[in-house]
Here is the input.
Amino acid sequence: MIRHDAEPHNTHGNSADAARQQDAARATTVIHEITPLALAKLANQRRVYDRLDWWPLEAWRTSDALIAVGDAAPNRSQVASQAAFQTASLSAALLIVPMSVKDMDPAETIHLHHSASPVAWLRWCAVAEVQSPSARLAQVLAEVAVRCRRVGITELWCLSELQGWLGLNLRDLGFKRRDELITLSLSLSLAPLRQAELPVQPLAGVLLRVLQPSQLDQPMLDALQTLDFAAFASPWHYSKHVLRQALSEARYVAVAEIDGRIVGYQCSILNDDGRGLASQSTYGHVTRLAVHPTVQHRGIGRWLFADALHQLVQLGAAEVTLNTLSSNTIAQKFYRRFGFVPLSDRMAVLSSEL
Here is the structure.
């Protein structure tokens, strides 16, 4: 979810820089202990960017991956408690998630020192309404750079609406636009399509197997992560921690095997009414479709994808969506063969070196 900033964005570089320098002159401090009340208050502001997907924000409150700044009180003795000081002063916060996290307990809080990759993603950000977003983001990003460099993270990536408040300010702060993420959709509400059986044809020598939650053990996660790293380039591959989260939220997961080796997989989610009842507003989303490069162009991806659509139809999805990059014309051609069409929704892919 991305909430729009109703304030006009200043496109004049000199004016923006002057405003940022003036606002940055105000006394600020990095908040190291963020209280639940302070975080909840900031999360209800108008300028909030949220791409946490499978994680609740509270799960990150004690992580050093959540960086916050606030205005320093002129006299702390005037504030009743440290907690009250933090709540009153918290003015901006930004959460980054390392692309690759070293093996750890799934219930453990992720910290930056667990990173095994130079890439991290900006997943959540908020700036209080009375603050200058450009100035506060500059201050938070300065602290982000310090913490990331300590653990070898050198790239920060972000998805932003094309005219979203966060993306516009990040570009002012040096982020470069690398690509666009587009959404494609297939409507299943047409009677002829819903009644038709989507083609799911077995391939010689390939076994398609439905993956149950109980089968998500460590060897399976190891195999899927190895496949994911081979199929996707940085910064798009999943770490085991992210993969575990994605698979735990999926409604349908299937793997393709050749001689007992996993060579492809897909996972799909289903948005229903929360009780498992389908309606016209029920939609499916294919979260991941991956095939190992050594066995591509043999129909494995098509089989996995057709099987996913077949299952989503059976579960009552009225629509299926997926994402791909604007530059990935091969993938777009593949999905169009199934009847998918691009929507107007587009996200800018931004990145910056730290």
